[in-house]
Each structure stands twice: as C-alpha cells, then as structure tokens.
Amino acid sequence: MRAPRRPRGFTLVELLVGTAIGALVLTGIGLVFVSQASQYQAHASRRAVQSSVRKAMGFMERHVRNAGYGVDPDRAILAYDSFDALSNARGVGYPDGITVHARDLYFRRRATEVGTDFLRFDTELQRPLRKGEILLVLCPGAVRYAYVTVGETAPAKSFSVKLDTTPAPVDSPLGPPGALFRELDTLEKEACFHDTEPPVVVRVERNSFYVTAFDEDGDPATEGTTPYLMLHRGVDINDDGAIDGADATPLAVGIEQLQVAYILNTLGDTPPPLVGVNDDVPWGETWHIATPELERPRLEDAYSSPRRLGSHPANIRQVRLTLVSRSTRSDTQRPGDDVLTPGAPSAGSSALPDAAPTWRPLENLGTTPARAFDPRGGGFSRAVLRGSIAPKNLLMRSQFTPVHLGGG
C-alpha cells in the first residue's frame, strides 16, 4: 500500500504567470471602463449642449414671434450688433443683442386722471408696476396714443404711478427703455387724454436678449469665460433704484454666440433685402432715429407703399437667429469643435477666411471674435441652431383698445 502524496502548492513561476495574466485582465477591464466613462461624459456633454441651445432658441422664438402685438411696428424690434455687455456698449467681435416689445395680454386700466408726470387708475394694482415698465395710454378710439415709462415702482394696491421725466438714456439691451417710450409731450398736448371719457392704459412687455460671460470657478485663468444667454426686461427687478445688468436673468448656460439677421419687406419677384450678413445691423433706436420722418412707414400705409419697402425695423418680415452653445468644461484631450467657416489650421483651430464670403454661419461676427465668445477650439463641444421667425404682428396697420375687462 502506497503512502498518500503530500499536498503540493504553486511554484514561484506559476504564481508569477498567474499574477501577470490577472494584471493584464484587470488592465483591460480598467481601460474599457475608462474608455466607456470618457465616451459617456462626451455624449452627456454633447446632449447638454444640444439641450441648452434648443431651450434657448425655443424661449427666444416665442417672444420674437409675438413681437409687435399691440405695439407700433417701428418700435417692436430693436437690434444691437456686437454688444459688449461688460462695458454696455458696442464692441468688436461680440455676440449680437435683440430687444422685442409686445403688449401684455391682461393688464388694462382706465386712467381717471392724466398728469404731466403721473397716471391715476380707476382700480387698484394687483401687482407692483416696477420702475422701467412701459405703459401705452390710448385715447378713446385709439386714434391718439402715447408710450410712457414708469419712473418709480408703484406697489400693489396703489391707484397711481409716477412717470419717468428724466432725459431718455442711451438705448441698450441691459438698460431702461429709451426715447421711443418717453412720449410725455404727446401725453400733455393731446386733449383726448384729458377729455370726459378716460383713456385706456395697457402695459408693454420688453424682453432683451444678449450674451455675456461670468467667472464661475474663481480661477483667474478662466475669469469671465463661462458664457450665458441673458434676459433683461428693462425694469428694476431687484428694487435698488437702478436699471442695469444686475436686473438681468440668466436663461441658458454655454450660449457663446447670438447672431441676428433680418429679411425685409419686398414686392413681387424682387429678392427680399437681407440685413445682418453683409451690412452692419443698426444699433438699437438709431435705426429709427436715423430714418428721415418722411421715409418712416406709418401704420396706415399700404403694404405696397415705398415707405414699407425701406430698411426700417417696421418693415421686418423675418428674423433669423443663430445660436452657438458650448460645453461648460473643456476637454484637454481634444482640440474642440469649430463652427466658423473652416480655413487653414491656425493655433490649434481653424482660421477665418481672409475675405468674408456672401454667407457665413455667423453673421457679422468678423475675423476677430472676443476671447470669451470665440466659437473655435478650446476643447469645447459645440452645437449650432438657427431659427427663422416671422413676426406677423408687424403687419398691424392700426392701434386698438383691448375689449377684455383687464386686470393685472
């Protein structure tokens, strides 16, 4: 009978071979995990970029489409080419800004007393009328009317509001309404505002869209490099007595470019004029003021009138918006997307062409975009979305008094 064999362990060679094989397997699993995690983050970043630009475009489209409802077409839409929000002035290589005006569907009051600097209503306010809000005072029949601006916030439950009698400020997307909404002289001169039948007062909503950049991580190297699409309503939201950038509301993160173009009115087979691609977009109210009085379109003008065929904001028939959204963080492992017209590589990114073609993806951006708004490289994922909106209310040919009982 043989003696039982004693248990035998692994040799050193076997242990080394097994360890090596295990390390290879674990390394492979780790590499797959890292690759999949990286892919997931990249796809999540792109989804966030696309979601942000779609939401921003949808919000802007709703307001641009409503522009001019109950508001004269000559002040329904204002444009700001290359707006530098930090200095609140026109710059070089910055995104555009746009302001739209439309009447509030619910606010309606009778003005029992109209003064040179105040209005008294027939019923109390249900909510505050803040400094900077625009009111439209309509005489009976709406043949005569005047736009005025609230000068001091009127609290809820009050029956009167003070009007702004200060000189009109320079018009901008992050400031109060300008000269087009300071018609106190008309309010004072027209007898119908002080007649037996009281005029009707409605509210005009102002929505300005522009792009600015903030520092979010405290790193001096990235200061002011996180772009946002902003909304400013031209009113003193924070009740500090001033109407400025502090009253703006961020709408969407990562929106680094907003470019605006217009298609103007035309007749027959004549190609419609396109403003904003090869021409400078006029700055805010200067488009209105620079147009001679005899050439400005009037509400009663026929659509074939020569005044309806000029380069005036009242003749806008389509607004084209182009938005560029980018990821909030850069990926150092990739050069980043380039949404400008491709050219020869330069400094890790595509260069802009020397001569501007008749069409570029971003109207009027120029060849030297500002640092925080340069839609090239940097390791950022980007998405471009363009929308064309027809503001049908600009076809309005007469003012009207609302028939609803009102409130607000």
Automatic annotation (TrEMBL):
Protein name per Swiss-Prot or TrEMBL: Type IV pilus assembly protein PilW
Source organism superkingdom: Bacteria
Compositionally biased region (Basic and acidic residues): 328-337
Pfam families registered for this protein in UniProt: N_methyl (PF07963)
Ranges that cross the membrane: 12-34
Keyword Transmembrane appears in the UniProt entry: yes
The species this protein was found in: Archangium gephyra
InterPro entries (UniProt xref): N_methyl_site (IPR012902)
Keywords, in A-Z order: Membrane, Transmembrane, Transmembrane helix
NCBIfam families according to UniProt: IV_pilin_GFxxxE
